[in-house]
């Protein structure tokens, strides 16, 4: 027993030394500043994820990797940010999955309507082998996927009328992300789907040139959409990941120890954001109701599911074997 205890102590000391050695790797590293951009405000989940990431990275690299956060689309919309990462003019960002899928189309498989029954089901796929494979595919377009943060289950809002079933959407002008799966989903539901960047959508809602949009509760709350949108339907029609993504030009310049820290910190920050989103949702819905928004929390989901079946018929094969693999993982 004494020998076992000594061996255990030796192993603990050895592991501690390894950890110290890894930390000391940064002693000889030239300090670097990474600009992390996103397009939403400081109350949003993306910013919560970004600030947690900043804290973890700076702590674990002894300040040698400094993260500067640029919120509110100050460096451009999401497509502009991704293009900047490819050529090295932007270092990294927290980016909604929809725009990322314009660069690697298989990423859009996650956003097929009504694919995931719960957040936990989505996390299991995203944090597993399928999710990692798709993150790795980003390297083919000069991007580096680190981890899946969360935009969340998306819900419909509009300024015109209560929506309980697809026929209630007919003719509404609904802003969607610049992604064909979203466009076709809402066209199948009868909407006039209008793809546009989020910054443009905010102005369009204020001016009344669109009737509504679809986003998770945290976005609807943080952008005070109750000021222009009178009705919300908790349709939960799509689970939207977000991605901690870097440009390969900057990734390749970093030492391996820094790359490891960035990857681990991104995953931990993503999980932190997911937890915060879950904790805040009930309070955010209560705030929106108090502000006068009419919220339907029990729409006819089955009718919506039936209406969007053509989207699966159109896109299923486009994603190769990812859709059947996800469906198998969800229903083993």
Automatic annotation (TrEMBL):
Domain of life: Bacteria
Signal sequence interval, chain numbering: 1-23
Lineage of the organism: Bacteria, Pseudomonadati, Pseudomonadota, Gammaproteobacteria, Oceanospirillales
Pfam families, per the entry: DctP
InterPro entries attached to this UniProt entry: DctP_fam, TRAP_DctP, TRAP_DctP_sf
Protein name stated in the entry: TRAP transporter substrate-binding protein
Entry keywords, A to Z: Signal
